[in-house]
Amino acid sequence: MKKTLYFCVAALLMISLYSCDKVDPPYMVKITPDTSTTSHVRKILIEDYTGHNCPYCPGAAVVADSLKSIYGNKVVLLTIHAGTLAYPPCSLGGPYTSINFQTTAGTAYDNFFGISAVGNPNGMINRISVGGSQIIGPTSWTSIVSTIVNNAPDAYIDITNTYNSGTRALNIKVKSEFVHDTAGTFKLCVLIKEDNIHSWQQNNNTAIGAVPIIADYTHHNVLRTDVNGTWGDTLATGVISAGDTIVKNYTVPSLNASWVDSNCSVVVFIYDAYSKTIIQAEEKKIK
Description:
Elements: E1 44-50, H1 57-71, E2 75-81, H2 104-113, H3 115-118, E3 122-125, H4 141-148, E4 155-164, E5 169-178, E6 182-194, E7 197-202, E8 213-219, E9 222-226, E10 233-240, E11 245-252, E12 264-272, E13 278-285
Parallel strand pairs: 1-2
Antiparallel strand pairs: 1-3, 4-5, 5-11, 6-9, 6-10, 6-12, 7-8, 12-13
């Protein structure tokens, strides 16, 4: 397999891990936006670990959104509410006590990688290790993404969603194709996320509002559930040849009634079962 899966960027930058640290401006960088539409590019999964009781987490969301604006379809965003700052009730109680965006998969990822134990906001980029850790602070996301975003892909993913608005049943067809001869065990993870959820959020980011509580904050790319188990299922194992293609089908009998289906997307990624490094990601709107 291409050695570009395991990026040695520790010599280029040092990662500062912190507990609910402030994300300082500037939040945007001047890079020409990517407008390509081909799916045959490397796509990067940015996992933003957050919580509604985390006042500095909106600053991390600003960084993630800016990277999506810059790189377009080359970046897939996933916001994961996990750890003590995502626990209900919220710190102020009142009408916000029932807020809970935690998921079984998100909690499992958080516990396995130890992210909230270090502190939110933090995240991962393709779950690569930088400086000996897969946990990466948002102040370093831009630098790391710019280092790897133009690398050639190691696999392609094509998602076909068939959705019944009446029954809210969803059928997902995932076609994966490997680009290079390789060997190992690779797994496929299928998740559902929801965008544009309006709810409460603590805030200490003057760039989006000079108030400590945002009652109508827009939560983007929120992980809602896993489709094929927390860690997915085996895609390929042993000797894998360039061009090998695997098609898998999944069914969600009924989308959760509280989710806005038009705001939901399927997120799929392929990862190395041993290192957990993600080699390709993709997303597709449900409808």
